[in-house]
Amino acid sequence: MKNIWEETALRANRVVAQPIGLNAEYPASQCFKNLQLADIPGVMDQKGFRIGSALMRRWFSSPSFIMPSGWKRADATDFDHRSISPQYIDQTTVTMAWALRFGRTQEVVDELRRVIAGQLSPRSHQISKDRLASRLKRAGKLSAQAVPFGNSRSAVDLHETTHVNSRNVSANSVEKLTDPIDDMYCALGAFTLHASAEGMVTPLRGMLGTPSHRVEIHSLNFYLRDSYDFSGDQMLGNWNNADIRTFPTSNLYMAENASFQRWRDVHRKGGDFLIFSDVYREKLSTPLTWDVQAF
User: Fold this and answer.
1) Residues in Cβ contact with 234 at an 8 Å cutoff, skipping those fewer than 6 apart
2) Please, are residues 137 and 149 in contact by the beta-carbon 8 Å criterion?
3) Helices in the chain by DSSP H: which ranges?
4) Could you tell me if residue 237 is left (phi over 0), alpha (psi between -120 and 50 degrees) or otherwise beta?
């Protein structure tokens, strides 16, 4: 359900702002006086928003594709991301080194550290243990032998095999309206930060009904996941050839999800895709030890 503040802001912008043009030429502003949707990556380049520009250019240049709604859910477990064609997953544009330049990412990484270490709510800590146990079982790691886990460098693979917990970044309406307009705002807006684990799992010789395996976590792997799509209703800023603002003025043109939907319908291009960053691995000074049940 769309938040009342987001809906009100979108309706107000539609009344006040001029809609952005939908010509497909690039750069469109050379041919048309008014800013066109295809000009937005160029505006981002001028402002130094290189990641936002690269992701949008990928969308504009891709064949028309509307992402299945199930892919959008950050906590989806009813499909394996490794089964998705690589053409629909970007794993190279966004890096954690770039993401960690922004304070809002750093804050959530710190929160995830404390959640997994059991320093926040007991419920969140138990969710972390249960989720890792479930992933290890699915990956065949809860066996009769001691085996390592989580040493992949692929965030997609780690997501499916050793995922522990996640937190949303800039997901609520206040954050969406008050976050600075920077490269992260233009590239991702709201997204999900994930943590997976790396370590060893060893079988225990306990009695039936007691924990069957001991998990030692030596490192945490942080990565982000997002869906780059224009489904539903959302305001995407007010633009001119040199700037972007949250609120409209007389010399700005409003972009919203519907702008991209119409552009795709007209030009038969514009392909949605998933984003996975690379992996930021953090070695723990003291390993975490969790006893888990395989059955």
Assistant:
1) 6, 10, 256, 257
2) no
3) 4-16, 40-46, 50-61, 96-99, 103-116, 122-138, 155-161, 173-178, 183-187, 257-267
4) left
Tokens of 179: 């976050």
Confidence of residue 7 (pLDDT cuts 50, 70, 90): low
Task: Write out the two tokens for 87.
Answer: 């053409």
Q: Which of 232, 248, 293, 255 is nearest to 7 (CA)?
A: 232
Alpha-carbon gap, residue 249 to 238, rounded angstroms: 8
Q: Which distant-in-sequence residues (6+ apart) come within 8 Å of 209 by Cβ?
A: none
| pLDDT tens profile 225-250 | 999 999 998 889 999 999 999 888 87
Tokens 């552009």 belong to which residue? 263
Query: Where do we find the tokens 């710190």?
Result: 110
Please state, in angstroms and rounded to a whole number, the distance separating the CA atoms of residues 224 and 169: 10
